[in-house]
Amino acid sequence: RCIGNDTHGRPILYNCFACSNARGPHGLLAHFTQTVEEAIQRMPPGVETFVWVADFEGFGIRDSIDPRFSIWLLNMFQNHYPERMGAVVCVEAPRL
User: Which residues partner with 51 through β-bridges?
Assistant: First the structure.
């Protein structure tokens, strides 16, 4: 979801992996696509990028996401939203 804008006017997208209602790679990808489109609509004139805050607090190995989702998400950003991501902030990233 969009939670506001940073000091540069970029929309901030926040998602909590442990709190996600979307299940399965297709549902998660659809959710991300909708969220990115919402962020683009919220961009003020002159702003072309967004900030993504990925919150992993409470996310554990039992919650592991289907690996296909990671590949599809990267492909989505690369093929449909190149140069739109201004920054990524990971909160409580799990240890590998």
Answer: 12, 87
For residue 51, CA distances in Å to 24, 25, 60 come to 24, 22, 24
The owner of tokens 């683009």 is 40
Distance CA 32, CA 76 (A): 9
Q: Per residue in 48-57, pLDDT tens? A: 999 999 887 8
Amino acid, single-letter form, for residue 36: V
DSSP state of 94: P
- Let me know how long the chain is: 96
- The one-letter amino acid at 71: I
Kind plus residue range of the DSSP H or E element containing 26 = helix 24-42
Q: Is the dihedral of CA 45, 12, 1, 35 positive or negative?
A: positive
What confidence tens digit (pLDDT) does each residue in 26-78 have? 777 888 888 899 999 989 999 999 999 988 787 666 656 667 777 888 898 89
